[in-house]
Design brief:
By secondary structure, this protein is mostly helical. It is built from seven helices and no strands. α4 packs across α6. The chain starts with a helix and ends with a helix.
């Protein structure tokens, strides 16, 4: 059983479908400000930034300096990049494609 199987529930489905309805960055700001605490948003955005820097082959020490993330967080994100479900990869490829339009 992978994490996707464990996560499957009506609540998660509703959340993900709701997120997919957002059309602008401003809508995302409003929705996530209502949904999450500031600390939760900081943690999520930090992990995404760490994943991007790791995918660009930046070393841990430089990631710590640039993001303020702990080495434990960096290690956890790195494991996800190596052994996860390629979720970060999909997002980075789409963001790169969007930038190159």
């Amino acid at each position: 059983m992978n994490i996707n199987d464990k996560m499957k529930s009506e609540d998660f489905e509703f959340l993900f479908k709701a997120i997919l309805q957002l059309e602008t960055v401003d809508e995302c700001y409003k929705f996530f400000e209502d949904l999450c605490t500031m600390q939760e948003l900081i943690s999520i955005s930090q992990r995404l930034r760490v994943a991007k820097l790791l995918s660009e082959k930046m070393i841990y020490n430089n990631i710590v300096k640039e993001t303020g993330a702990s080495t434990a967080t960096i290690s956890r994100v790195n494991r996800t990049l190596q052994y996860g479900n390629n979720g970060y990869k999909v997002i980075f490829e789409r963001l790169d494609a969007e930038e190159n339009k």
